[in-house]
Amino acid sequence: MQQFFRIAGSCLAVLLVITVRGYAQNNLSAGDIVIASYQSDKDLSNSDLGGTTAYTDRFSIVVTKSGGLAAGTIVYFTDNGWNASTGNFITGLSEGFIKWTVPTGGIAFGKEVFFISSYNDPATSWNAWLNENGTSTAGTVTTESGTNYMELSSGGDQLLAYQTGPTAGPASTYNNTTRRFLTAVHANVETNVTTYAAWDGTTPAGGHQSSLPTGLTNGTNAFLLSQTTLPVATVGSGEYDNGKYNGTGATTCSVTSLVTAVNTPANYVLSNTAFAIGATSNHTVFTLNNPVTIGTNPVVQSVCNGLTAAYSVAATGSGALSYQWQQSADAAFTSPVTLANNSIYNGVTTSALSILDNTGLSGKYYRAVVTNTCGPVNSNGATLTLNASLPTSAASLTQAVNTNNNLYYSSPCALITKVTPSGANAVSGNITSKVWIESSVPVAVGQPFVARHYEITPATNAATATGTVTLYFTQAEFNAFNAAPGSSLDLPTGPADNLGKTNLRVGKFSGTSNNGTGLPASYTQGAIVIDPNDADIVWNSTYSRWEVSVSVTGFSGFIIQTSTAPLPLNLISFSGHLTNSDVVLKWQTESEINHDHFEVERSTNGQNFVTVGRVAGVNTSGLQNYSFTDANAAQLSGSRLYYRLKMVSTKNEEEYSKIVTITLSDAGSPVINVTPNPFTGYVKVTVQMPEAAQLTIRLSDVTGKTLKTQHLPVAKGETIIPVTGIDQLVNGIYLLSVQYNGRMYTYKLVK
Fold first, then answer.
1. Which residues, 6 or more positions from 232, have their beta carbon under 8 angstroms from its beta carbon?
2. How big is the CA angle at 441 (ends 574 and 523), to the nearest 5 degrees?
3. Distance between CA 572 and CA 576 in Å, rounded?
C-alpha cells in the first residue's frame, strides 16, 4: 500500500507537470496565424488521378505571431460552419474537428505549415508537414470528432481555426464553449445571401454554410475565397474551390499589415481545378522589416552666436536608412522647413547636421526625418540657443584666420572682435585680438575717446595686410562718452540717431601698444582717423550693442572718437623750475603726427594766460625733448607763476597741457620747485645749490608734529631730492621745511 501511494504520488506529479506545461503554451489571438492556401478539389497526387498517394484535401497556414509558436501549442481546425445567431457551431451536422499540436522546437515566425488529408476507406486522417510534398512532419494532428471526419467539400465549405479554454491557456478539448477564433476562410457563395462582411449571414444552415466567426473581420484576419462583387444572383457565380496567396505584401513592416495582406481576397490566385503538384502554395517568403527606431535623438545646443553648431541622430531599421533634416520655428514643427545644403547648412541628408554659421537662428528647432522601407520616423526636435555678450574686462584671443567664422570670442561667449580677410593683401595666419575697458572715459591730449578700445595684431604682415574689422560697443559706453568733458560732438544716442553715426570716427594707431595698455600714448608708429560708412555703423537689437565695421590696411590699435583728426601727439611730461631769476620749462613728447608748434603761455593768477614764447614741433614719431626759458620771470610780482602749453596741429587744431606752478622762492632759498602738489605717495624737492652743503628736509602736520626728517649732503648745481614713505598719510594740509645756511624755508602741501 505504501509502495502504491509512492507510485500514485509520482503519477500525480507527472500529471501536474504535463498540465502546467500545457497551460504554459501560447494563448493565441486572432491574426497569430493566417491561411495561405486552400484546396478542396482532390489532390493531383492522388492515385485516383494517376498519382501515388492517398492525399485528398489540403491547406496551409503561416505563423504570424511574433516569436513564433511554442512547442505543445494546440490549435483546432474544423469545416463545421459557425452560427452567429446562436454563438455556436451549426449543429446537426457530421463535420469534423482536428487538433494540431505544435512539435518540439516550435514553429518560427513566417514559417508555412502544410496540412494534408489522406482517405483510407472508411477514414480520413490529417497530418501536418513542413513541406508541400508531405515528407517532414510538423507536429501531430488528431481527429477529435470520432467518425465525423473533416473533409473539405468542393461544393462549398469553410475552414475555421480556433483555440478553446480560459485565457490562461488553451483547453484540451475542441468543444469547450470558450472559443477564440484565430483565422478562417470561407469557400461558399449562396445566391443573394453571401456577403464579404457577414459571409452566409447570421442564421446559416447546412454543412457548406457559415457566418463570419465571432471576433474575426473579413479582409483583416479572415477572408472569403472570392473576388466577385457580392451578393450574386446566379448560382455558383463567384465561388471557387481552390485558392493560394500570391505573395503581395509579404514583405512589410508590421504584423498587422502582413496579416491583412494574406487575408485580402484580391491577393489570391483562385481556381476551380486543383493546383499542380508542387504548386498548391506560392511558397511565399515572409519578411518582416524593422521600422526605423531612433536610438539617440538630437540634443539641445547652446553655443556662441555666429559660430557653428551640430546636431546628430542615431537610428536603426531594416535596409538602407535615409535622412532629411528639418527646421521649425516651434517645437511642434507646425510648418517644418526642409533644409538644403548651402552656405549655412551641411550634411542635411546625413545623420549629422552641421550649421556653418548660426547667426539669426536662435530659438529654432531641428529634427531628423529618418526613412527606410517602412516609412519615415521623426526624431525629437532640439532647440538652438545662441549666446553673445561683450567682455566686461580686458580680454585677448589668438586664433587663425577663417576659424570660428572669423569671430574672436573669449570664454564664455564674450565677443571681442570680428576680423575678416579682404582686400588686395588679405590678412592670413594667426591674429591676436585684444580689448580693454577703462573704468571711466579716457582722454588723450584733451580729447576723450570711448572706454572700450581694441588692438588687432596679425602674426605676419601686420603693417600691410588688409581686412575688414568689426568693433563692438554698448550704448552705455557711447552715453558716457557724450557726457564726458571735452566731448564736443555726440556719438549715437540710440539706434535712430543718424547724426551720431555721422559724428563717429575710428582712430587707428599703427603698431602695438608698448606698455600693454592699448592707450593712444603707447603707440609710436603713427595714427590716422577713419570715417566709417554710416551703413556700417549698426545697432544689433538682438544683443543690444553697436557694431562698427571698417576696412583697413595695416593692423593696429583702434579707438572710437568724434574728433576728425588723430590725437596729434602724446605729451609724456611737462615740468618747470626756477633757476636764479629764470623759469626753465621742460617737456617730452612722442608720436607727433600732424603737429606744428607749441605756444608757451604764462599767468600770474592761474586764470588769465599770455603767450610768452613759441617752439616749433619736430612732428615725427619717437621721443622728443623740448625746453623753454622764461628769462627774468622771477622779477614779476606775486609769489607764484603758472605755465601751460598750447599744442597746435598743422590744421590749426589746439589742445592744452596741464598747468605747471612755479613758486617764486625767498631770496637765498635753494628750492626751485616742490612737486607734485597735491601729492599722493611722494614729493620731489628740486634745489639749485650754489655750492655743496648740508640740507635738512622736514615734513610736519599743521599742529607742528614732525612726521618725517631727512638730513643729507647736496652737491653743487641742480638736484632732485625725493621725499618718500608718505603714501599712508591721511588727506589734509602738510608743511615741508628746508633748512639751509641757518634759515628755514617752508612750503604748504596738500594730500
1. 189, 191, 192, 194, 238
2. 55
3. 14
Cell numbers standing for residue 237: 457565380
Domains and CATH numbers, the chain: 33-271 (no CATH), 293-387 (2.60.40.10), 395-562 (2.60.220), 570-663 (2.60.40.10), 671-750 (2.60.40.1930)
CA-based torsion, 131, 135, 138, 142: positive or negative: positive
| DSSP E strands, 317-425 | 322-328, 337-338, 345-346, 352-355, 365-372, 375-378, 382-387, 395-400, 407-410, 414-421
Contacts of 189 (CB under 8 A, 6+ apart): 156, 224, 226, 228, 230, 232, 236, 237, 238, 239
Strand order in the sheet with 624-630: 570-579, 582-590, 624-630
> What are the cell numbers at 512?
602695438
Residues sharing a CB contact under 8 Å with residue 19, sequence separation 6 or more, in sequence order: none
β-strands 251-252, 287-288 pairing:
parallel
Per-residue burial over 379-400, b = 16 or more CB atoms within 10 Å of its CB, e = otherwise: bebbbbebbbbbbeeebebebe
DSSP of 191-227, one letter per residue?
Answer: TTT-BTTTBT-SS--STT--BPPTT--BTTTEEES--
| Alpha-carbon separation of residue 735 from 84, 707, 713, 716, 744 (angstroms) | 124, 10, 21, 25, 12
H or E segment at 479?
A: helix 475-483
pLDDT per 10-residue tile (average), the chain, 751 residues: 28 32 70 98 96 97 96 96 95 94 96 98 97 97 95 96 82 81 98 97 93 98 97 92 97 94 98 96 94 98 96 97 98 98 97 96 98 96 96 96 93 95 95 97 86 97 95 97 89 96 93 92 81 96 96 95 72 80 86 83 88 90 88 79 86 75 72 85 88 92 88 90 90 89 83 86
Three-state secondary structure call for residue 42 = coil
C-alpha cell belonging to residue 680: 599722493
Q: Which residues, other chains included, contact 356 with Cβ-Cβ below 8 Å and sequence gap of 6+?
A: 308, 343, 344, 345, 346, 405
- What's the pTM? 0.64
Q: Which long-range contacts (CB under 8 A, 24 or more apart) does 346-351 make?
A: 348/324, 349/322, 349/323, 349/324, 349/325, 350/323, 351/312, 351/313, 351/314, 351/315, 351/323
Residues, the chain: 751
Cβ contact 543:569 at 8 Å = no
